[in-house]
Amino acid sequence: MVLTNHFSDYYNYISYRTYFDMIEGGMPKEETREVFVQGGHICAFNTFGGIMSSPEWYQLIAPQCRNDSDWIHGMVAVINALGWGVWRVEKIAPGENLTIRIYNSYEGVGFRRMFRRSDERQLSFLNLGAVQGLAHLLWKIDIKERPTLSHEFYTEVFNNPESAFKAEQTHAIAAGDAYDRIVAVRA
Fold first, then answer.
1. Does CATH number 3.30.1380.20 belong to domain 8-186?
2. Residues 140-163: pLDDT tens digits?
3. What global pTM score does this model have?
4. Sorting pLDDT into bands at 50, 70 and 90, what band is 3?
5. For every residue of the chain, which 3-state class applies, written as one string?
């Protein structure tokens, strides 16, 4: 798996400036937010899906997994090695919902460094899409079955609203909370 490496504040600056500029230009806030969350969803499909389909995953992690919850915990352990903050699984109800807490989220911490505290809580765009995508990988497409992760599969199945999960951020570092908390529930 090849990942880009750049400063998180650079990514945050571009994302949040563009987000605010789009809203200032007249784009509705919900639609604008969805554009950025979709980026995290696509990232989850390609990055998390690629990791969970890799020979390394099947050599090192999959042998330790007995159920979907183990797959979630295994992927969270990998995510924690990426430097995106410290992810903790708060709750798993397989096939129904997934709750993740993220301490020191690069999005939340970066937002607070660049802007004042926000009244808005739905600001960790990539993390929102990532948690939604993790739920989709396990309970919408069943990554354990090793589907071919192509652009067509993403468009027709993974991103299809049927049997989808919706992610909501209930706590946000950007809003002054101690952590980001994201809940993905079946829509």
1. yes
2. 999 999 999 999 999 999 999 999
3. 0.94
4. low
5. CCCCCCCHHHHHHHHHHHHHHHHHCCCCHHHHHHHHHHHHHHHHHHHHHHHHCCHHHHHHCHHHCCCHHHHHHHHHHHHHCCCCCEEEEEEEECCCEEEEEEECCHHHHHHHHHCCCCCCCCCCHHHHHHHHHHHHHHHCCCHHHCCCCCHHHHHHHHCCCCCCEEEEEEECHHHCCCCEEEEEEEC
- The residues spanned by each domain of the chain are 8-186
Q: Which amino acid is at 131?
A: V
Do the beta carbons of residue 180 and residue 85 sit within 8 Å? yes
